[in-house]
Amino acid sequence: MALVLTFGSIGGGIVRTSFFPMVASDQVTIQLRMPNGTNEKVTDSIISLIQEKAHIVNDELSEKYLKGMDKKLFLNMIKNLGPGSSTARLQINLLPGEERPDGIRSDMVTGRLRELVGPVIGVESLIYGSGGNFGGSPVSVSLLGNNIAELKAAKEELKQIMLNNATLKDVTDNDPAGIKEIRLQLKENAYLLGLDLRTVMNQVRAGFFGTQAQRFQRGQDEIRVWVRYDRENRSSITDLDEMRIVAPNGDRIPLIEIANYTIERGDVAINHLDGRREIQVSSDLTNPETTSGTDAMAWIRNEVMPEIVSKYPSITPSYEGQNREFNKLFGSLKFVGLIVLFLIFITIAFTFRSISQPLLLILLVPFSLTAVAWGHWIHGFPINILSMLGIIALIGIMVNDGLVLIGKFNINLRNGLKFDEALYEAGRSRFRAIFLTSATTIAGLAPLLLERSRQAQFLKPMAISIAYGIAFATILTLLMLPLFLSFGNSVKVVAKRLWTGEKVTPEEVERAIRERDEEDLLERESLPSDNAPSQNGMDTEKHGTSIEEETSR
Questions:
Q1: Which residue, 29, 30, 305, is CA-closest to 140?
Q2: What is the mean pLDDT of the chain?
Q3: What's the farthest any 2 CA atoms get from each other in the chain?
Q4: Which fold would CATH assign to domain 24-131?
Q5: Which residues contact 63 (CB under 8 A, 6 or more apart)?
Q6: How many C-beta atoms lie closer than 10 Å to residue 545's C-beta?
Q7: Selection from 143, 141, 167 nearest residue 154 by Cα
Q8: Under a CB-based contact definition with an 8 Å cutoff, are residues 367 and 480 in contact?
């Protein structure tokens, strides 16, 4: 019942799950990206405004949580411009996790700062990074395709849907727009005049950017002479309309008469994944305590992407970030884990020369997951990859405790005790060993469970799995494992009675008793062969005596 309730709580979201743990960071990073070509003074003014608001956040949170303490929440702030004139970054270093109260988290700082700054007009992206995304972004989708128009349209639609979701924040992509470009398209009459696109573009480039007319040496310096329009004739887009293009026959024709042009943003980067053009859209979680990355990715996979794919059939989604790392690790664990469980089963089976006993012991493992799940709920951690690694260690400790109990139980049976008495004495005699193993393990993990530093947050899920799991596994080993052994014995008794039609005792069907009986039988069969030499010796002696008597006669 408890196991069913636990799995129901996980499915219902009471006990949360995620790909990787969300670790409270000691650092907040605000990344600003303006459209390419933006003047650095504009970029600097916006990041400076954010820095001013950060001072207000520092005063507010320090007054609320650090009142009476001679320290501020922010240790320092570092502002950087670049690379380029359109990007800037503000790094805020907080007090270490062990020095600030439990109520202060890095996402609280970014949330309040976002409120004070408000919407900023004209930015390409503004990300309030609170850190702690171990393994990549919790929500990340790569759109793959070779149709660039559909790819960009799907990206914009997906970004808009994610921006409208209140549980997601810092929605960004890896396909930023470049600087403005003028793209020419020749009219039909241009080709009739003997012009082509390359000739026209070379003349436009030479007029506005310049062309090298001469190069000569002056001492150790090389002098290059460039020719282009003066500043007055190349500072406005209207100058392009009035530019004269030289035709092959020597005529000078206005550009506007032979070509159309558009002003568009170019591409900064071209990304590929699996041989196809890729645009990746990523986001962070607004409140990791109420929403997990698994829930957000399930929403995108089941509700959002089917509609986008139906509208743009050339697009294929690939789920990246923490989801990719989870699939890689889970895929290897699934394969290796089954092999490890099989090897454990084979080892125990050869040790006890029984199939039922190791099988019953391994059946205890799922029941220990009850304590693992509720231990994470108590500490406020979601079940994640590191929790699974802790469960692997827990299986080893559980199997070790079970081996101690079953080994003593088999010894008691071989010594002639009845089944129930052997089971009771095994639990009573091995209680101290099993209890001390669990108690010392939990005591050793207690400092890690109580540690508040950022480094400890990565290992806490693993420690929770082992500590809570082994505490409950002790009860399972001492109470539930004997019940399993008793139930298994009853099944074997009934099965043998139906097979043979004879009444059998609980002890007769146990492997330990059958082995003891086989050993006793071998000893009894070996006794005559051991006496045979002495008997032959006696016969020889008698025969020798008769010979001597015959000789004397």
A1: 305
A2: 82
A3: 157
A4: Alpha-Beta Plaits (3.30.70)
A5: none
A6: 10
A7: 143
A8: yes
